[in-house]
Protein backbone atom coordinates (compact mmCIF):
# COMPACT_ATOMS: atom_id res chain seq x y z
CA UNK A 1 0.00 0.00 0.00
CA UNK A 2 1.19 3.51 -0.79
CA UNK A 3 2.36 5.52 2.19
CA UNK A 4 0.54 8.61 0.93
CA UNK A 5 -2.25 9.14 3.42
CA UNK A 6 -3.41 12.53 2.14
CA UNK A 7 -2.95 14.14 -1.22
CA UNK A 8 -4.33 17.47 -2.39
CA UNK A 9 -3.98 17.75 -6.13
CA UNK A 10 -4.61 21.29 -7.45
CA UNK A 11 -7.34 21.80 -4.87
CA UNK A 12 -9.47 24.93 -4.90
CA UNK A 13 -12.46 25.93 -2.80
CA UNK A 14 -14.55 28.94 -3.69
CA UNK A 15 -17.45 29.91 -1.46
CA UNK A 16 -20.39 31.56 -3.16
CA UNK A 17 -20.47 32.80 -6.74
CA UNK A 18 -20.33 35.93 -8.82
CA UNK A 19 -19.20 39.24 -7.39
CA UNK A 20 -19.32 38.00 -3.78
CA UNK A 21 -17.35 34.75 -4.39
CA UNK A 22 -14.51 34.08 -1.92
CA UNK A 23 -11.59 31.95 -3.08
CA UNK A 24 -10.59 30.29 0.21
CA UNK A 25 -8.11 27.85 -1.42
CA UNK A 26 -6.41 28.26 -4.78
CA UNK A 27 -4.72 25.37 -6.55
CA UNK A 28 -3.18 23.78 -3.45
CA UNK A 29 -0.84 20.80 -3.87
CA UNK A 30 0.13 18.89 -0.74
CA UNK A 31 1.12 15.29 -0.04
CA UNK A 32 1.37 13.86 3.46
CA UNK A 33 2.76 10.40 4.16
CA UNK A 34 2.18 7.88 6.92
CA UNK A 35 4.19 8.80 10.00
CA UNK A 36 4.39 12.48 9.07
CA UNK A 37 3.34 15.37 11.33
CA UNK A 38 2.58 18.52 9.33
CA UNK A 39 1.67 21.90 10.82
CA UNK A 40 -0.35 24.43 8.82
CA UNK A 41 0.17 28.09 9.69
CA UNK A 42 -0.98 31.36 8.18
CA UNK A 43 -2.88 34.54 8.95
CA UNK A 44 -6.56 34.57 9.83
CA UNK A 45 -8.65 33.91 6.71
CA UNK A 46 -5.75 32.34 4.77
CA UNK A 47 -7.65 29.07 4.27
CA UNK A 48 -6.32 26.81 7.06
CA UNK A 49 -9.71 25.55 8.25
CA UNK A 50 -10.91 25.18 4.66
CA UNK A 51 -7.89 22.99 3.90
CA UNK A 52 -8.61 20.81 6.92
CA UNK A 53 -12.34 20.38 6.22
CA UNK A 54 -11.61 19.41 2.60
CA UNK A 55 -8.90 16.97 3.71
CA UNK A 56 -11.36 15.36 6.10
CA UNK A 57 -14.15 15.06 3.54
CA UNK A 58 -16.37 17.43 5.53
CA UNK A 59 -16.61 19.71 2.52
CA UNK A 60 -16.01 19.26 -1.20
CA UNK A 61 -13.41 20.94 -3.39
CA UNK A 62 -14.71 23.16 -6.20
CA UNK A 63 -11.56 22.33 -8.20
CA UNK A 64 -8.88 19.65 -8.15
CA UNK A 65 -9.06 16.42 -6.15
CA UNK A 66 -8.49 15.25 -2.58
CA UNK A 67 -7.22 11.68 -2.08
CA UNK A 68 -7.35 9.91 1.28
CA UNK A 69 -5.30 6.71 1.27
CA UNK A 70 -5.46 6.81 -2.52
CA UNK A 71 -9.25 7.17 -2.75
CA UNK A 72 -10.44 10.26 -4.67
CA UNK A 73 -13.14 11.86 -2.51
CA UNK A 74 -14.83 13.71 -5.39
CA UNK A 75 -16.45 10.56 -6.77
CA UNK A 76 -17.85 9.26 -3.47
CA UNK A 77 -21.51 9.45 -2.52
CA UNK A 78 -22.42 11.10 0.78
CA UNK A 79 -22.73 7.68 2.45
CA UNK A 80 -19.42 6.44 1.05
CA UNK A 81 -17.75 9.63 2.23
CA UNK A 82 -19.21 9.24 5.72
CA UNK A 83 -17.95 5.64 5.87
CA UNK A 84 -14.46 6.61 4.73
CA UNK A 85 -14.38 9.41 7.29
CA UNK A 86 -15.36 7.12 10.17
CA UNK A 87 -12.84 4.47 9.15
CA UNK A 88 -9.83 6.56 8.20
CA UNK A 89 -10.15 10.13 9.43
CA UNK A 90 -10.07 11.54 12.95
CA UNK A 91 -11.05 15.19 13.23
CA UNK A 92 -10.44 17.36 16.29
CA UNK A 93 -12.74 20.37 16.12
CA UNK A 94 -11.96 23.76 17.64
CA UNK A 95 -15.07 23.57 19.80
CA UNK A 96 -14.74 19.80 20.56
CA UNK A 97 -18.22 18.81 19.19
CA UNK A 98 -18.75 16.28 21.98
CA UNK A 99 -22.20 14.95 22.88
CA UNK A 100 -23.05 16.31 26.37
CA UNK A 101 -25.52 13.53 27.21
CA UNK A 102 -22.89 10.81 26.68
CA UNK A 103 -19.98 9.83 28.92
CA UNK A 104 -16.39 10.21 27.78
CA UNK A 105 -16.18 6.54 26.80
CA UNK A 106 -19.52 6.69 24.97
CA UNK A 107 -18.43 9.78 23.03
CA UNK A 108 -15.25 8.04 21.94
CA UNK A 109 -16.99 4.73 21.12
CA UNK A 110 -19.74 6.43 19.08
CA UNK A 111 -17.96 6.62 15.68
CA UNK A 112 -16.93 2.96 16.00
CA UNK A 113 -20.46 1.85 16.82
CA UNK A 114 -21.82 3.91 13.91
CA UNK A 115 -19.40 1.95 11.78
CA UNK A 116 -21.02 -1.31 12.87
CA UNK A 117 -18.44 -2.44 15.39
CA UNK A 118 -20.06 -4.39 18.26
CA UNK A 119 -20.59 -2.27 21.39
CA UNK A 120 -18.18 -4.23 23.62
CA UNK A 121 -15.36 -4.02 21.11
CA UNK A 122 -16.05 -0.32 20.47
CA UNK A 123 -15.96 0.28 24.21
CA UNK A 124 -12.64 -1.57 24.50
CA UNK A 125 -11.17 0.56 21.70
CA UNK A 126 -12.56 3.69 23.39
CA UNK A 127 -10.83 2.74 26.66
CA UNK A 128 -7.57 2.19 24.75
CA UNK A 129 -7.85 5.65 23.19
CA UNK A 130 -8.69 7.27 26.55
CA UNK A 131 -5.62 5.57 28.02
CA UNK A 132 -3.45 7.00 25.22
CA UNK A 133 -4.60 10.52 26.06
CA UNK A 134 -4.13 9.92 29.79
CA UNK A 135 -7.73 10.03 31.07
CA UNK A 136 -8.87 6.41 31.26
CA UNK A 137 -9.97 7.01 34.87
CA UNK A 138 -12.52 9.59 33.62
CA UNK A 139 -14.22 7.19 31.17
CA UNK A 140 -17.61 7.33 32.93
CA UNK A 141 -17.81 11.09 33.40
CA UNK A 142 -20.23 13.28 31.48
CA UNK A 143 -18.91 16.32 29.67
CA UNK A 144 -20.16 18.86 32.25
CA UNK A 145 -18.12 17.02 34.89
CA UNK A 146 -14.87 17.61 33.01
CA UNK A 147 -12.56 20.60 32.60
CA UNK A 148 -11.90 22.14 29.17
CA UNK A 149 -8.54 20.36 28.99
CA UNK A 150 -10.11 17.01 29.86
CA UNK A 151 -12.86 17.51 27.26
CA UNK A 152 -10.18 18.31 24.70
CA UNK A 153 -8.52 14.99 25.51
CA UNK A 154 -11.86 13.22 24.98
CA UNK A 155 -12.12 14.95 21.58
CA UNK A 156 -8.63 13.71 20.71
CA UNK A 157 -9.39 10.20 21.93
CA UNK A 158 -12.45 10.20 19.65
CA UNK A 159 -10.25 11.28 16.75
CA UNK A 160 -7.63 8.56 17.26
CA UNK A 161 -9.89 5.64 18.26
CA UNK A 162 -9.55 2.54 16.11
CA UNK A 163 -6.13 3.48 14.73
CA UNK A 164 -7.30 5.98 12.15
CA UNK A 165 -4.60 6.83 9.66
CA UNK A 166 -5.34 10.53 9.14
CA UNK A 167 -5.68 12.81 12.16
CA UNK A 168 -6.74 16.41 11.46
CA UNK A 169 -6.62 18.89 14.33
CA UNK A 170 -7.83 22.50 14.13
CA UNK A 171 -6.11 24.53 16.88
CA UNK A 172 -6.56 21.70 19.39
CA UNK A 173 -4.61 23.52 22.07
CA UNK A 174 -6.53 26.79 21.67
CA UNK A 175 -8.13 27.15 25.10
CA UNK A 176 -5.55 25.17 27.08
CA UNK A 177 -2.72 26.19 29.36
CA UNK A 178 0.70 25.48 27.89
CA UNK A 179 1.47 22.33 29.91
CA UNK A 180 -1.86 20.76 28.90
CA UNK A 181 -1.30 21.91 25.32
CA UNK A 182 2.10 20.26 25.22
CA UNK A 183 0.54 17.03 26.50
CA UNK A 184 -1.93 17.10 23.58
CA UNK A 185 0.90 17.62 21.08
CA UNK A 186 2.77 14.73 22.59
CA UNK A 187 -0.26 12.50 22.05
CA UNK A 188 -0.56 13.64 18.41
CA UNK A 189 3.17 13.11 17.87
CA UNK A 190 2.75 9.61 19.33
CA UNK A 191 0.12 8.79 16.68
CA UNK A 192 2.61 9.50 13.91
CA UNK A 193 4.98 7.04 15.54
CA UNK A 194 2.11 4.53 15.34
CA UNK A 195 1.92 5.19 11.56
CA UNK A 196 -0.75 7.89 11.30
CA UNK A 197 -0.41 11.13 9.35
CA UNK A 198 -1.22 14.19 11.46
CA UNK A 199 -2.17 17.65 10.19
CA UNK A 200 -2.25 20.38 12.83
CA UNK A 201 -3.57 23.90 12.24
CA UNK A 202 -1.92 26.26 14.68
CA UNK A 203 -1.09 29.92 15.22
CA UNK A 204 1.75 29.11 17.58
CA UNK A 205 5.26 28.63 16.26
CA UNK A 206 6.10 26.73 19.44
CA UNK A 207 3.49 24.12 18.61
CA UNK A 208 4.48 23.94 14.96
CA UNK A 209 7.91 23.05 16.30
CA UNK A 210 6.54 19.57 17.07
CA UNK A 211 5.90 18.98 13.37
CA UNK A 212 8.19 17.42 10.76
CA UNK A 213 7.13 20.03 8.24
CA UNK A 214 5.39 23.39 8.37
CA UNK A 215 3.21 24.62 5.51
CA UNK A 216 2.44 28.35 5.34
CA UNK A 217 -0.79 29.49 3.72
CA UNK A 218 -1.56 32.98 2.52
CA UNK A 219 -4.66 34.06 0.57
CA UNK A 220 -5.52 30.43 -0.08
CA UNK A 221 -2.13 29.43 -1.49
CA UNK A 222 0.83 27.58 -0.04
CA UNK A 223 3.51 30.26 0.02
CA UNK A 224 6.27 28.47 1.89
CA UNK A 225 7.28 25.15 3.43
CA UNK A 226 9.86 24.46 6.08
CA UNK A 227 11.32 21.39 7.70
CA UNK A 228 10.99 21.82 11.42
CA UNK A 229 13.10 19.00 12.94
CA UNK A 230 11.02 19.30 16.12
CA UNK A 231 13.00 22.36 17.12
CA UNK A 232 10.82 25.42 17.75
CA UNK A 233 13.81 27.74 17.37
CA UNK A 234 13.97 26.81 13.66
CA UNK A 235 10.63 28.55 13.25
CA UNK A 236 11.69 31.67 15.01
CA UNK A 237 14.66 32.34 12.76
CA UNK A 238 14.39 33.56 9.20
CA UNK A 239 10.80 32.56 8.72
CA UNK A 240 9.29 36.01 8.47
CA UNK A 241 6.65 36.25 5.78
N1 LIG B 1 -18.75 28.85 4.70
C1 LIG B 1 -18.13 29.92 4.19
N2 LIG B 1 -18.79 30.78 3.38
C2 LIG B 1 -18.19 31.86 2.86
N3 LIG B 1 -16.90 32.18 3.06
C3 LIG B 1 -16.20 31.37 3.85
C4 LIG B 1 -16.76 30.19 4.47
N4 LIG B 1 -15.79 29.58 5.20
C5 LIG B 1 -14.69 30.33 5.04
N5 LIG B 1 -14.91 31.39 4.24
C6 LIG B 1 -13.92 32.41 3.82
O1 LIG B 1 -12.83 31.73 3.25
C7 LIG B 1 -11.57 32.30 3.63
C8 LIG B 1 -10.72 31.28 4.35
O2 LIG B 1 -11.34 30.93 5.59
P1 LIG B 1 -10.74 29.84 6.58
O3 LIG B 1 -11.70 29.73 7.74
O4 LIG B 1 -10.40 28.62 5.85
O5 LIG B 1 -9.39 30.58 7.08
P2 LIG B 1 -8.48 30.29 8.34
O6 LIG B 1 -7.09 30.48 7.88
O7 LIG B 1 -8.84 28.99 8.95
O8 LIG B 1 -8.87 31.47 9.33
P3 LIG B 1 -8.82 31.53 10.95
O9 LIG B 1 -7.37 31.44 11.33
O10 LIG B 1 -9.41 32.87 11.26
O11 LIG B 1 -9.66 30.38 11.46
C9 LIG B 1 -11.95 33.52 4.50
O12 LIG B 1 -11.97 34.64 3.66
C10 LIG B 1 -13.34 33.18 4.99
O13 LIG B 1 -14.07 34.36 5.27
TrEMBL record:
Superkingdom in the source lineage: Bacteria
UniProtKB keywords: ATP-binding, Nucleotide-binding, Transport
Keyword ATP-binding: yes
Positions of the ABC transporter domain: 6-240
Gene3D superfamilies recorded: P-loop containing nucleotide triphosphate hydrolases
GO molecular function: ATP binding
Protein name per the record: ABC transporter ATP-binding protein
Organism of provenance: Arthrobacter silviterrae
